[in-house]
């Protein structure tokens, strides 16, 4: 008999897991809290092993056609003077073949792969869990053979099956905020970054978008951007003004999820819900894609949740280590560190081989992104766990 699987969360991990499980012969239902698939959003990267996964899904060319095409990254000082510029791929830590696109574009492509074959219930959320029985916000309930939480860093599935979020959450000591802003700088597929002590602000424009995105990364727990960025130079006051009335401001602590196990009885977690590496890792999207592939493959070929953990854990943990290290490079603690870094960047800007130097600095990211051998699970259908 076909096994029924409930996936909680219809973003990157949820939609790609739905694809693979359906392909392996499972009967899949996805519940997504949002009323509809979320378009747009910030830019995310697909790199390393995740490129193999999307290639096996047959969507690599489509995803490449949706690339943000960010072609340059520039660092400016407080007066707005250019300190250094790099090519967009180097700036974003991408080597040949890696793809950067908007999160909403990626989710749309993943959803379109299965929209007709998988039952999607938008505007529905999990609220209760008792063994195989799931209660929903709408008041209904149903039983499934397996329940997979792909509901992100603040996962309700995790809270219901494993315990309160605080038990698994490791805050890195920083906050992040991102929103759409008018492209008042007239950026054309480029990113500009300002670095102040304990606070970084950047703005970028992507192919096909008339607006821009502003991102704020800063040390501490203060939620008020205005307080944290008071006195900042460059275009920060204008970005703060725009953020104040942005319709889509997203703000959160920079956190990681660390768990000893990702499954309990019929429930397992995937993506940020299981191992959130934090936005600073640059690997959250790729981990979600690879995790979904491995989880579905192990379920289909008899490895079960144990096989999934065995294959996925070393990869997830290695990529998680990137988060705390990267965020320290993105947000410099003191005025002195900022000055030293600006001097170094200014010198580097004149070196003919600067892009190669920067690419070498990204080696740990690329090694981590490739640190898994992906089995060929085939399209076998044996939907028993
Ligand atoms: C500001 C920011 C910048 C980022 N930048 C990058 C980057 O440059 N590169 C990169 O690779 N990654 C980046 N990431 C990380 C990346 O977005 C995540 O790692 C990735 O989205 C994880 O996918 P996921 O499907 O596991 O979780 P999510 O994308 O968080 O999706 C979880 C889904 O579950 C739904 N949901 C939540 N609770 C419930 C519930 N109770 N019932 C039903 N549905 C529910 C949510 O609505 C959501 O759709 C960034 C993240 C942020 C926040």
What does this structure look like?
The termini are close together. Residues 380-385 have low confidence and may be disordered. β13 and β14 form a beta hairpin. The protein has helices spanning 12-23, 49-56, 60-65, 88-91, 103-114, 156-162, 225-228, 236-244, 272-275, 284-300, 304-320, 322-330, 335-349, 354-361, 363-369; strands spanning 4-8, 27-32, 43-46, 72-76, 82-87, 99-102, 119-122, 126-130, 133-136, 141-143, 146-149, 169-181, 190-196, 199-204, 212-219, 250-257, 263-264, 267-269. It has a seven-stranded mixed beta sheet, sandwiched between helices. Strands 7-2-1-11-18-17 form a six-stranded mixed beta sheet, with helices on both faces. It has 385 residues and is of the alpha/beta class. It has a domain at 4-68 and 95-171 and 255-327: FAD/NAD(P)-binding domain. α1 runs parallel beside α5 (103-114), α1 runs parallel beside α10 (284-300) and α10 (284-300) packs antiparallel against α11 (304-320). The chain has 15 helices and 18 strands. It binds flavin-adenine dinucleotide. Residues 8-14, 31-34, 42-45, 103, 125-126, 150-152, 156, 176, 178, 250, 271-273, 279, 282-286, 288 line the site of flavin-adenine dinucleotide.
């Amino acid at each position: 008999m076909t096994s029924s699987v409930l996936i909680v969360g219809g973003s990157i991990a949820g939609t790609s897991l739905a694809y693979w499980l359906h392909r392996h012969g499972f009967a899949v239902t996805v519940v997504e809290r949002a009323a509809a698939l979320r378009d747009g959003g910030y830019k995310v990267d697909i790199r390393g092993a995740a490129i193999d996964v999307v290639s096996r899904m047959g969507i690599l060319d489509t995803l490449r056609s949706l690339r943000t095409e960010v072609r340059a990254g520039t660092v400016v000082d407080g007066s707005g003077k250019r300190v250094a510029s790099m090519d967009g791929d180097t700036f974003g830590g991408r080597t040949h073949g890696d793809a950067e696109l908007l999160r909403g574009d990626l989710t749309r492509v993943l959803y379109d792969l299965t929209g007709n074959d998988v039952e999607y219930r938008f505007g529905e959320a999990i609220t209760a869990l008792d063994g195989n029985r799931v209660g929903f916000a709408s008041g209904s309930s149903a039983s499934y053979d397996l329940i997979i939480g792909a509901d992100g860093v603040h996962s309700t599935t995790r809270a219901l099956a494993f315990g309160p979020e605080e038990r698994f959450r490791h805050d890195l000591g920083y906050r992040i905020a991102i929103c759409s802003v008018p492209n008042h700088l007239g950026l054309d597929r480029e990113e500009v970054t300002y670095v102040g002590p304990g606070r970084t602000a950047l703005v970028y424009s992507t192919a096909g978008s008339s607006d821009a995105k502003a991102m704020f990364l800063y040390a501490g727990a203060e939620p008020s951007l205005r307080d944290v960025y008071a006195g900042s130079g460059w275009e920060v006051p204008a970005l703060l003004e725009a953020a104040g009335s942005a319709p889509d401001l997203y703000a959160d602590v920079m956190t990681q999820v660390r768990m000893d196990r990702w499954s309990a009885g019929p429930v397992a977690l995937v993506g940020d819900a299981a191992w959130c590496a934090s936005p600073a890792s640059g690997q959250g999207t790729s981990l979600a894609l690879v995790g979904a592939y491995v989880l579905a493959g192990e379920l289909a070929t008899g490895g079960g949740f144990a096989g999934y953990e065995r294959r996925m854990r070393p990869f997830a943990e290695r990529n998680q280590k990137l988060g705390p290290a990267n965020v320290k490079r993105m947000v410099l603690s003191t005025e002195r560190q900022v000055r030293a870094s600006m001097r170094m960047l200014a010198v580097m800007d004149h070196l003919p081989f600067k892009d190669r130097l920067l690419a070498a600095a990204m080696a740990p990211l690329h090694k981590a992104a490739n640190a898994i051998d992906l089995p060929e699970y085939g399209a076998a259908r044996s939907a028993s766990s």
